């Protein structure tokens, strides 16, 4: 027999899961802990399975509870967005788009694509969050985001659930402050051995390929820092702290804005940025416009996991610089 869903019980369950305890959730909801505990017990009885298990004075979701929570996040996430829309001032009549951007994507590239929304609708209301792609992917699943821009495609599991488009494929360039560049340039690329390198994350595909390329040249660089903010990396590099990499596609602007110089172009190592959307989602006019531009100017679209995922991950390129 299919259990009859009680949305109030599900809402309380979601609150407990997000807060980690009945006490914390009851305080936030201004309800007695006994009330929440009773509602949770009724829900578990209706569903016929435990939703939580207690560990170290905290409630942790069971595997079944995690699945129920994911559905609740999607369901109540839409309701939260509707509430924000209905209570917002000055934005109710404007088209709203919510985009997550991996913090490691260079800001010039992010702006180039995000500005497309204003090309279509100058009055558009853009809500942009930069951060961790793994967390943002979950927010996309639960429709808290409309789109995700990421340079970490290998984090995208269950590719068949998503619509993907490659926005950029560019060779890498290595940059340094003028004084550091002047010292290293005469012996390039061998003079890079022993020098310090700044990276966004060691999980980035470009980093793995760059290390492999350097190894082929007999070059070993020291990892100076992992900084997941692409703009902060450039500030460190501009002060002579270490060498950093950025797409050759934006080399001129990087040099002008941060007063650094190109040490070396490495076209064999590609930095790639992807748009990720939910497959089958009903697109707003803003999102539909963005996808049209992305397909026209970039052009690698994944229709299904089986047909395209392997070639895309292994290095298929759209041919863009």
Report on this model:
With 321 residues, the protein is α/β, with parallel strands linked by helices. The chain folds into 3 domains: 7-71, Arc Repressor Mutant, subunit A; 96-169 and 272-313, 3-Layer(aba) Sandwich (D-Maltodextrin-Binding Protein, domain 2), CATH 3.40.190; 171-271, 3-Layer(aba) Sandwich (D-Maltodextrin-Binding Protein, domain 2), CATH 3.40.190. Helix content is 44%, strand content 24%. It is built from 13 helices and 11 strands. The strands form 2 sheets. Strands 3, 4, 5, 6, 7, 8, 9, 10 and 11 form a 9-stranded mixed sheet that branches. A hairpin with a 2-residue loop joins strand 1 (52-55) and strand 2 (58-61). Helix 1 (7-19) packs across helix 2, helix 1 crosses helix 3 (33-47) and helix 2 packs across helix 3. The radius of gyration is 24 Å and the shape is elongated.
Write the layout of secondary structure elements.
Elements (H helix, E strand, L loop, with lengths): L6 H13 L2 H8 L3 H15 L4 E4 L2 E4 L1 H25 L8 E7 L4 H8 L1 H5 L4 E7 L1 H9 L5 E4 L11 E15 L1 H7 L11 E4 L5 H12 L5 E5 L3 H9 L4 E5 L3 H8 L2 E18 L6 H13 L2 E3 L2 H9 L8
Helix pairs in contact: 1-2, 1-3, 1-4, 2-3
């Amino acid at each position: 027999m299919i259990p009859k869903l009680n949305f109030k019980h599900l809402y309380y369950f979601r609150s407990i899961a997000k807060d980690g305890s009945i006490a914390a959730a009851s305080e936030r909801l201004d309800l007695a802990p006994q009330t929440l505990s009773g509602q949770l017990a009724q829900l578990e009885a209706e569903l016929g399975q435990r939703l939580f298990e207690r560990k170290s004075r905290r409630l942790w979701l069971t595997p079944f509870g995690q699945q129920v929570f994911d559905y609740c996040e999607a369901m109540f996430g839409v309701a939260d967005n509707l509430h924000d829309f209905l209570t917002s001032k000055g934005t109710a009549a404007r088209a709203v788009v919510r985009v997550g951007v991996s913090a490691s994507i260079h800001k010039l590239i992010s702006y180039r694509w995000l500005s497309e929304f204003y090309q279509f609708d100058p009055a558009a209301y853009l809500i942009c969050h930069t951060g961790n792609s793994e967390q943002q992917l979950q927010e996309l699943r639960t429709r808290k985001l409309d789109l995700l821009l990421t340079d970490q495609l290998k984090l995208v599991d269950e590719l068949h659930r998503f619509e993907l488009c490659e926005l950029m494929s560019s060779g890498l360039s290595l940059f340094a402050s003028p004084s550091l560049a002047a010292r290293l340039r005469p012996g390039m690329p061998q003079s890079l051995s022993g020098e310090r390198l700044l990276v966004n994350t060691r999980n980035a595909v470009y980093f793995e390929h760059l290390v492999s390329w350097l190894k082929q040249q007999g070059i070993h660089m020291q990892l100076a820092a992992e900084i997941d903010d692409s703009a902060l990396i450039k500030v460190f590099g501009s002060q002579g702290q270490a060498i950093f990499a950025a797409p050759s596609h934006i080399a001129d602007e990087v040099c002008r804005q941060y007063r650094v110089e190109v040490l070396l172009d490495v076209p064999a190592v590609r930095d790639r940025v992807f748009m990720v959307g939910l497959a089958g989602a009903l697109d707003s006019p803003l999102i539909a416009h963005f996808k049209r531009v992305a397909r026209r100017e970039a052009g690698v679209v994944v229709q299904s996991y089986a047909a395209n995922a392997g070639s895309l991950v292994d290095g298929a390129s759209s041919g863009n610089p």
